[in-house]
UniProtKB/TrEMBL annotation, chain A:
Coiled coil: none annotated. This is PIG-U-domain-containing protein. The keyword Transmembrane applies. It comes from the Eukaryota. Keywords: Endoplasmic reticulum, GPI-anchor biosynthesis, Membrane, Transmembrane, Transmembrane helix. One of its GO terms (biological process) is attachment of GPI anchor to protein. Its main location: endoplasmic reticulum. It comes from Dactylellina haptotyla (strain CBS 200.50) (Nematode-trapping fungus). The lineage of its organism: Eukaryota, Fungi, Dikarya, Ascomycota, Pezizomycotina.
UniProtKB/TrEMBL annotation, chain B:
Residues 400-415 have a biased composition (Basic and acidic residues). GO terms for biological process: attachment of GPI anchor to protein. Residues 391-415 are annotated as: Disordered. The chain crosses the membrane at residues 15-38, 360-383, 430-450, 462-483, 503-530, 542-567, 579-603. Keywords: Membrane, Transmembrane, Transmembrane helix. This is Glycosyl phosphatidyl inositol protein transamidase complex subunit. Gene3D superfamilies: Zn peptidases.
């Protein structure tokens, strides 16, 4: 890690600390925003659960708290001080930034054993990737509002960083932690496996089956340990229903930037279970396809899955999008091949500003209704989906041009 | 994919660029024209009552006769208290309310803004509904001094008389709160804030409360013993929010059909229902909405989603307190009928006569089209090949599209990957333009903070100092950029700065249009020169014209226009803005300083660069 990285990370963390201290009311205001805090990540609900937990009541009784039990024990160990909690969140962002620097320094986004991008020298240096994460308004807002998605994000990044460095066991133990915290990172298991396989440093590579076994064991063991620990902490298994059950069954229809809440408000009860299965399966179908098609660049398969999850998961927030955008910066050398950069940037800005405005009209001014906000979450999701699709196009085009250099610069016509 | 740009258009970029230019100009013209069409019969609609429960004017109003003598007696009381301090007034009012058998509360408040102190004491009484459960309330309010600082004798007297009169009826299903606020601007705000427990330590809490407020009617009837000609209905809320149209319709219908009272809007005293008068009413409404200030005590209630209007008397005619009392009584009977909160009718509308309006679907496109025009210009600037920095030395690549020339070198190895060295085409350099634009937007905090902190007395001096600074700042910036950046980067830098600035402006304005249509539209109109004011190092006269044009449409020019419109000094307008921010939570200054002013500064920077580049001879670009 060079001096520039340290400088960027230092300034980024300082900015967060300054925001925390200069505007003491900001965390509360941001934590109330539905775009940032969801029922499964909200800091307010975490405090509620913590209160019940420390007073000897089961935190899952009230139907308010839907987060993992280990977070409870973590926060009950932390001294009850706002400053320390804030610092803790800033440290989580520090871990994310360091992990991003490690991923960027490894160069996996440009060179893999199966593919060398012709544009690999145009990649941004690691400090720029860290800057994209640290100075992204979405990640700053997420850090300040203190939803627990911050931890999931940094653990996912930590896991990827371990994978690209060839540390198999830590990578999968971290992934198990991320999956334990918010379920959906479990989808990243296959691409992470491929990534670990491609990046293993051993001279004589074991077969993919062997790697699969080597990695599955720590993953499953860790997951089991976390669940068992949670059982010990809360003294019952009811947390499974209150945490993963909520992710899967969507009992809380608080608005968020995703597509689920409105859909399931409007849904007739008889169709509810069918569409729940459909929506959940929809997330899974991308995994095999992306892993196969992007076999040469498993990191990009993983990033694309992060992007898809951030759109289609049951309780998405802008924290998920910020994770995807920061990871996407690793592939900035393919951005010139994207076709709608300006349009997408403008559209995402529009959605960012119109979303709170329409939410205000609906909830506070009373002059709008739920359709206003839903329309904007649709735009937001479409824009994110277009970014995912366009980035995928750019990376595939980059791959294609490696095979067929004579076609560089030619237009593609879709028939 | 549907969004794919057809291949032939990519080749003929100039066609696309002209297309965008034509589209953006077209959007603006259509936007303005469609606003001017609104007063026509084909585009506006007659008002109608949506909420059937209101039944306006269906009941007989009994206020009158001997009640009028009571009003006159109370007038005398008010007259005697005329210049007393607010606590004396509050005590006497409380006494009167108590003697009518009502629960009374008093509330002191104190605001500080622009170096001035605004203190007073509100007094209010709650009439518990004989047929209600105290979950809903309606408010009858009379400010002691009205918005023009005149003693509101008739209004207060009428409120006192009505409190006795209403107490006798057994038909109320909602609590009625009688509020006598100390003034028309800060008092109601303090009261409504405290009613919802959202007040600061400078405001006392309320000792007595009732249920959720469903509607508010303010009576403004100043002067001694005068008869009036017409009722002036004021309806603009803080930040341009409006009450539900049903409330205005109810008041208009009751005064017109039941009382034979003419109603006026927006100080249009002789409205002949012609195109010109309708347009004028609409434009006046838009100016009030755009400024987002309080036009009466009702304005403070509207942000709490409480529908409120002020009924102000005007002129000299044959109506007396009896007519006004019966009007208020009838409106209250209608409000009493409400089964649920006002929701049926429109919240977004422009009124052009008491019985004509346009709803949001008809008028919103005009503001949106202006924002779209700005955005389309931004897209055009982005697509323009001039946004790309050519390689050092100039004419290396002329193509607008990036066509990387490649020389493939086969590389051995087991992965058989082919490494291709890409010689990138001309790139857009985003860092400097983005930092100029974002920096300008952050700088908007400075004037905003300064004008909200300083004293009333120093305001005009600081303002002229600030005008001078903003006049010089863009020039200094453009000199700085021109001297530090290398020659071939200059034009793309200014080009892209304009692009981002217009993109942001278009985005802000379209967002704003959904919240405060008029403000968005007016800023959009003033910002139109930004669409055309570009860097022209080869034509200094054109740059000069652009500078003058920008200077004429600057936020300062707009401030002077506003000051002229009301015949106020510039420091009064700024004081009003500061007061609005501290007391009402008015957002207009934020929008002006952190959306409009930065866009204007960036526009000036790119125009001023023409002079600097012409002077320094860095004109090749």
């Amino acid at each position: 890690m060079d001096r520039k990285c340290l400088l960027v990370i230092g300034v980024g963390l300082l900015l967060r600390l300054v925001l925390f201290t200069a505007f003491p009311s900001l965390p509360t205001i941001l934590a109330q925003r539905v775009e940032i805090s969801t029922p499964v990540t909200s800091y307010k609900r975490l405090q509620e659960g913590l209160f019940l937990y420390t007073h000897g009541v089961s935190p899952y009784d009230g139907g308010v708290f839907h987060q993992a039990p280990l977070l409870l024990s973590l926060f009950s160990i932390l001294p009850d001080s706002t400053i320390l909690t804030n610092v803790f969140y800033v440290l989580a962002d520090l871990l994310s930034a360091v992990s991003l620097v490690q991923i960027a320094s490894s160069g996996v986004s440009g060179v893999t054993p199966h593919h060398v991008s012709p544009r690999k020298d145009n990649r941004w240096p690691p400090w720029a990737i860290a800057a994209v994460f640290l100075f992204n308004p979405f990640s700053i807002a997420t850090c300040i509002a203190r939803p627990t998605i911050v931890f999931t994000n940094s653990i996912v990044l930590h896991s990827i960083a371990n994978a690209v460095q060839g540390n198999r066991a830590p990578a999968f133990v971290s992934l198990a932690m991320a999956s334990y915290l918010s379920l959906y990172p479990v989808l990243l298991f296959p691409p992470l496996l491929l990534l670990t396989y491609d990046c293993s440093k051993a001279v004589s590579k074991p077969s993919i089956q062997a790697i699969g076994a080597i990695c599955t064991i720590p993953f499953v063991t860790a997951l089991f340990v976390y669940l068992k620990l949670s059982h010990v902490i809360t003294d019952s298994w009811e947390f499974i229903v209150s945490t993963y059950g909520v992710h899967l069954l969507l009992p809380d229809l608080t608005p968020n930037v995703g597509l689920w809440w409105y859909f399931f408000i409007e849904m007739f009860d008889s169709f509810r279970s069918f569409f729940l299965c459909l929506f959940q399966l929809h997330l899974f179908i991308y995994v095999p396809g992306l892993c196969l098609r992007l076999r040469k660049q498993p990191l990009f398969a993983l990033i694309t899955l992060v992007g898809i999850t951030s759109i289609f998961k049951s309780y998405p927030a802008i924290g998920d999008t910020s994770l995807y955008l920061s990871l996407l910066a690793l592939y900035n050398h393919t951005f010139p091949l994207m076709r709608y950069t300006f349009f997408l940037a403008a559209a995402i800005l529009y959605a960012t500003f119109l979303g709170p405005a329409f939410y205000y009209l609906w909830v506070y001014a009373g002059s709008g209704n739920a359709n206003f906000f839903y329309a904007i979450t649709l735009v937001w999701s479409i824009v994110n989906a277009l970014i995912v699709a366009d980035a995928l196009y750019a990376v595939l085009r980059d791959e294609y041009e490696t095979e067929r250099p004579e076609l560089i610069g030619k237009d593609v016509v879709q028939i | 994919m549907a969004l794919r740009v057809p291949v032939n258009l990519r080749k003929n970029l100039s066609v696309v660029l002209y297309g965008f230019q034509a589209l953006s100009i077209g959007a603006v013209i259509v936007g303005i024209a469609s606003l001017l069409l609104l007063p026509l019969d084909e585009y506006s609609r007659r008002t109608y009552i949506s909420e059937n429960a209101l039944l306006p004017g269906q009941v007989h109003a009994y206020f009158g006769g001997s009640e009028q003598n009571i009003v006159r007696a109370f007038r005398r009381e008010v007259d005697l208290l005329g210049n007393s301090t607010s606590d004396v007034v509050a005590e006497r009012m409380a006494e009167i309310f108590r003697s009518a058998g009502l629960k009374v509360g008093k509330q002191k408040y104190e605001y500080k803004a622009a170096g001035g102190e605004y203190t007073g004491e509100n007094v209010y009484a709650v009439l518990h509904a004989p047929r209600g459960d105290a979950t809903e309330a309606i408010v009858l309010c009379a400010p002691w001094k009205n918005i023009d600082h005149l003693l509101n004798e008739g209004g207060v007297a009428l409120t006192l008389a009505l409190s006795r009169y209403f107490k006798r009826w057994s038909l109320w299903s909602k609590d009625i709160i009688f509020l006598i606020s100390s003034d028309a601007r800060a008092g109601p705000q303090a009261w409504v804030d405290a009613y919802h427990d959202l007040h600061g330590p400078n405001i006392q809490s309320l000792s007595v409360k009732s249920g959720a407020i469903q509607g508010v009617v303010v009576v403004d009837y100043p002067g001694a013993y005068h008869r009036f000609e017409s009722l002036h209905i004021l309806y603009d809320g803080i930040n341009g929010q409006l009450p539900n149209l049903d409330l205005i319709n109810t008041a208009v219908q009751i005064s017109r059909d039941q009382m034979g009272l003419r109603t006026d809007l927006q100080e249009m005293w002789d409205h002949a229902d012609t195109y010109r008068h309708r347009l004028k009413t609409m434009l006046r409404g838009m100016v009030n909405q755009a400024l987002g200030h309080s036009t009466g005590p009702h304005s403070s209630f509207i942000p709490y989603h409480i529908d409120a209007i002020t009924l102000a008397t005007h002129g000299d005619g044959w109506h007396d307190e009896g007519s006004l009392g019966r009007t208020v009584e009838s409106v209250f009977r209608s409000l009493n009928n409400l089964l649920e909160h006002f929701h049926q009718s429109f919240f977004f509308y422009l009124l052009m006569a008491p019985n004509r309006f346009v709803s949001i679907g008809t008028y919103l496109p005009s503001a949106m089209l202006i924002a779209v025009g700005l955005t389309l210009t931004a897209i055009r600037l982005w697509l323009d090949p001039r946004s790309r920095t050519k390689a050092e030395g100039g004419e290396a690549v002329e193509q607008p599209d990036e066509k990387p020339t490649s020389k493939a070198t086969k590389e051995g190895g087991e992965n058989k990957a082919v490494e291709t060295v890409i010689d990138g085409g001309p790139k857009r350099e985003l860092f400097l333009p983005l930092s100029v634009v974002i920096g300008a937007h952050f700088c908007g905090v400075i004037p905003f903070a300064v004008f909200n902190i300083i004293d009333y007395k120093s305001m005009s001096n600081v303002f002229y100092l600030f005008i001078a600074t903003s006049f010089i700042l863009p020039t200094v910036l453009s000199v700085f950029i021109t001297l530090t950046a290398s020659e071939h980067r200059l034009l793309p830098t200014f080009h892209l700065s304009r692009c981002f600035s217009l993109l942001f402006l278009g985005m802000f304005l379209s967002t704003l249009a959904t919240v405060n249509f008029s403000l968005s539209f007016l800023i959009g109109i003033f910002s139109l020169p930004l669409m055309f004011a570009r860097t022209t190092p080869t034509s200094v006269p054109l740059a000069f014209i652009n500078t003058v044009l920008l200077q004429l449409t600057s936020p300062f020019a707009a401030l002077f226009i506003v000051a002229n419109y009301w015949g106020l000094g510039i420091e009064d307008v700024l004081k009003e803005a500061s007061f609005g921010w501290w007391v009402w939570g008015m957002w207009t200054p934020v929008v002006v300083w952190s959306v409009w002013w930065p866009a204007w500064v960036v526009g000036r920077v790119s125009v001023d660069a023409s002079f600097v580049m012409a002077l320094t001879g860095k004109t090749s670009g």
